[in-house]
Amino acid sequence: MSDHAGQAVRNRFQPAPRDDAADLGKLRRMQRISDADGFIRAAAIDHPENYQILFDTDLGRVGFEEVVDSKLSMIAAMAPHATALLLDPVWSVGQAVVTGALPGDVGLISGIEDLYYRPDDSPVGFDTTLRLKPGWSPAKLSLLGCDAAKLVVFYRADSDDATAAAVHDVVASVARDCATLQLPLVVEPLWYPRPGEDVQDPAVAARRTESVVAAAGSFRRAGADIMKMEFPTTLTTDAGRAGADAACERVSEAVEGPWVLLSAGVTFEGFADQLGYAARHGCSGFMAGRAIWGDGVGRRPEDERRRGERVAGERLDALAEILTAGAPRSWRPLPMGDAARAVGADWYRTFGE
Predict the structure, then answer these.
(1) pLDDT digit string (tens) for 79-121?
(2) Considering the entire predicted model, what is its pTM?
(3) Is the Cα dihedral 13, 180, 26, 339 positive or negative?
(4) Tally of CB atoms within 10 A around 324
(5) Nearest to residue 79, comparing CAs of 58, 59, 107?
(6) Looking at residue 217, what is its pLDDT?
(7) What's the structural domain count of the chain?
(8) Does residue 293 come out as left (phi exceeding 0), alpha (psi in the -120 to 50 range) or beta?
(9) What is the spatial distance between Cα 115 and Cα 133, in angstroms, rounded to a whole number?
(10) Least buried of 153, 247, 291, 336, by fewest C-beta within 10 Å?
(11) Structural domain harbouring 33
(12) Measured CA distances, 76 to 45, 72, 82, 103, 294 (Å)
């Protein structure tokens, strides 16, 4: 995004401060997706076609029931090790609730974006246009008892002003809907390369870092309660590793609030390495997918799938240990001595209005 567009976003979406009682519903839901220390430890298994392809590259050979059974089995295995699960409405949200695969004491998050699968001509496998999923809204998530909504935004901060403004308008509109419902909004900006760009090129890598940092701030100001962020550099190069601490610090400064790390297709070992950097510089948790459960999904022998499920739980526990090494909490409790001042006797009369 240009400097002019960035300033426009800051001016238009700077949130107004609110008193403690006004956001009690949102705070309660934040508590439900966090552990007692305020860390968000979420397993994301809301993947659409990129989950199906783990069974067969010909998606026409992958049955609905096969995917549902796979997701439910992995959800049940991961739930005891996570504070929340990020589930999709097609194959997992309703099914996990009705079967109890997702226990009542584990938070529930679902995405409201509509992803168009384009593996042949998209660098990220999906159309990068921002669309909301028809028939699936913050209101329905709230009615179901979900604890947060998630919105993926394929975005580059060097987009033209009109494109940047349009995307931020959509996010701001969704944020207003979520705020009315006291439903926390998780925004997940994903950078993508343009044709001819090599992500290993230092100049391209630098542009990506700048975009990740800028998106962290602009979408937070557009109304996101939690930012779900890519790691801002790559740890596979000397330059990326050397700049990782500073880049993570810049993300935290830009967000000025809670942010969690996504795994973006890296290995578990690679993700644990990234989380170590991020947790030292303001990251409050993770919402990670294939790096956790990738070894247990697909048409594998039964013993291999069960082993993959056990490994997924072990990986979640290992990531939790990294967080407890010093990451900040995603929400902060008010001292008990301040409760009567912050939440007065009549707070319930106007709450939600």
Answers:
(1) 999 999 999 999 999 999 999 999 999 999 999 999 988 888 8
(2) 0.93
(3) positive
(4) 11
(5) 107
(6) 98
(7) 1
(8) alpha
(9) 8
(10) 336
(11) 3-350
(12) 12, 6, 11, 8, 15
